[in-house]
Amino acid sequence: MTTLPQDLTSLAEDVLHAYGVKDRMIATAESCTGGLIAATLTAVAGSSRVVERGFVTYTNQAKSELLGVDPDLFPKVGAVSREVAAAMAEGALRHAPVDAAVSVTGVAGPGQSEMKPAGLVYVGLCRRGAHPSVEEFRFDGDRDSVRHQTVVAALKALLRLIEEV
Questions:
Q1: Rg over CA atoms, the chain
Q2: Please, which residues bridge with residue 84 across strands?
Q3: Other C-beta atoms lying within 10 Å of the C-beta of residue 76
Q4: Which CATH class is domain 6-164?
Q5: Structural domain boundaries in the chain
Q6: How far is it, in rounded angstroms, from Cα 69 to Cα 61?
Q7: Interhelix angle for 143-164 vs 6-21, to 10°?
Q8: Which of 87, 100, 108 is nearest to 155 (CA)?
Q9: Which pLDDT tens digit goes with each residue over 10-55?
Q10: What is this structure's pTM?
């Protein structure tokens, strides 16, 4: 088994501590990271106090079936969009007994288009009783680097969200 880079381990520990002391549970809804956010969090001992579940929804069909994302949204805005990231976060919250959810959708590369370049990532957040928020990122680097930066962005977003509670 590979060990996580120290920056990811530290962030995961911070997220787990922040949510744990407030007795809050989270879920992840991931596309371009393929479960790396959940894997990063659950690599830390004691994570079951905070991490309830993770959804890996790589295809549009999975996003619709598991998270309830409206299939009509994909032809309108595409899977890599602010709207889909918001719907994924809301869907994770609806389909899990959690207090907060983070979602990611993006182009890790290759396979980019002119409109959606490699490195374009949306991170969605939603907590119970609130509307979702979405951040857009333009990461540089290869596929592994984009995915790593996405995990970092998602964990930092979760930290900001719990500080608001």
A1: 15
A2: none
A3: 10
A4: alpha beta
A5: 6-164
A6: 9
A7: 20
A8: 100
A9: 999 999 999 999 999 999 999 999 999 999 999 999 999 999 999 9
A10: 0.96
